[in-house]
Amino acid sequence: MREAKRDEGWVKKQIKNRLSKYPHLHWWMPNAGAFGVSGQHDFMICQMGVFWSIEAKYGTNTPTDNQITFAKRIREAGGFCLMVNEKNL
User: Fold this and answer.
1) Helix or strand run (H / E) with residue 82
2) Looking at residue 36, what is its pLDDT?
3) Overall pTM > 0.70
């Protein structure tokens, strides 16, 4: 059997699988591209009144300046953010 291609899409699939195991989480993936908010993270989560987000990366990819700014705004509002890659799933 062929091993699945590992890239950022693979990381996002792993995150979806993990988040789906917790019915008390409300999560979604915002639209990317022209209709999305620049820098918005890949996953938005609300858990028992706490807002948090996850930005998925793969390999040596790092968050963009807009993604870092987005994370700072969430932290300033009382939420928290994670950057998840294939090494820290």
Assistant:
1) strand 80-84
2) 72
3) yes
3-state SS record for 8-69 = HHHHHHHHHHHHCCCCCEEEECCCCHHHCCCCCCCEEEEECCEEEEEEECCCCCCCCHHHHH
Q: Tell me the residue type at 27.
A: W
**Burial (CB count <10 Å: 0-12, 13-18, 19+), residue 56:** buried
State how far the Cα of 52 lies from the Cα of 46, in Å rounded to an integer. Answer: 6
35-86 pLDDT tens trace: 777 899 999 999 999 999 999 999 999 999 999 999 999 999 999 999 999 9
What residue type is assigned to position 22 of the chain?
Y
Task: Give the 3-state secondary structure of residue 2.
Answer: coil
Q: Where are the alpha helices (DSSP H) in the chain?
A: 8-19, 65-76
Contact 84, 55 (CB under 8 A): yes
